[in-house]
Write a structure and sequence with these properties.
By secondary structure, this protein is mainly alpha-helical. 77% of the residues lie in helices and 5% in strands. It has a domain of 57 residues. The strands form 2 sheets. Strands 1-2 form a two-stranded antiparallel ribbon. Strands 3-4 form a two-stranded antiparallel sheet. The longest helix is centred in the first third of the chain and has 53 residues.
């Protein structure tokens, strides 16, 4: 018998099963996963607020442009107003794309940090070797950098 009457059981693989150790590991993994989830929600909240702000600005600028175009008698001036509105609209779409890309990379990075934090494999010394968060960030940045030419090609063919 071990602490508090818990018995040392063997798993099907013949590996000792320590209930106290198992509970501690489970708690640690659950806490890490839930902390990552909270960070993801915080990031999504921030991104959503920014998106709503841009959509509100788009609506207000469209209303203003329509009113100004309808009030002018000069077609060239109406065209200028339209082009100004269109430029602002394209800028907001680009900002949306950037925000989505940055958010996706942050979520991916946080998920990788979670996976890396859990995936300690025993090395030759018998100690766990876990990639550092810096290594995980570097790998995520390399993936992002490798993806840029593909995104550029998609834009040019789109």
């Amino acid at each position: 018998m071990h602490e508090k009457g818990e018995s040392k059981l063997a798993t099907g693989a013949g590996v000792p099963y320590e209930p106290k150790e198992f509970r501690a590991q489970t708690k640690n993994q659950a806490e890490r996963a839930l902390r990552v989830q909270a960070k993801i929600f915080d990031n999504f909240e921030s991104m959503t607020k920014s998106w709503i702000h841009r959509r509100r600005a788009a609506s207000q600028q469209a209303l203003s442009a329509v009113a100004r175009m309808c009030d002018c008698d000069n077609p060239a001036e109406a065209n200028t107003i339209y082009n100004e509105w269109l430029t602002g609209s394209i800028d907001r779409m680009i900002a949306d794309s950037r925000a989505i890309n940055e958010q996706s990379m942050q979520v991916f990075q946080q998920m990788m940090e979670q996976v890396v934090g859990e995936s300690g494999e025993k090395g030759e010394s018998g100690e766990k070797s876990v990639k550092s968060h810096d290594v995980a960030r570097k790998e995520a940045a390399e993936i992002k950098t490798a993806d840029k030419p593909m995104r550029s090609a998609q834009r040019s063919t789109g």
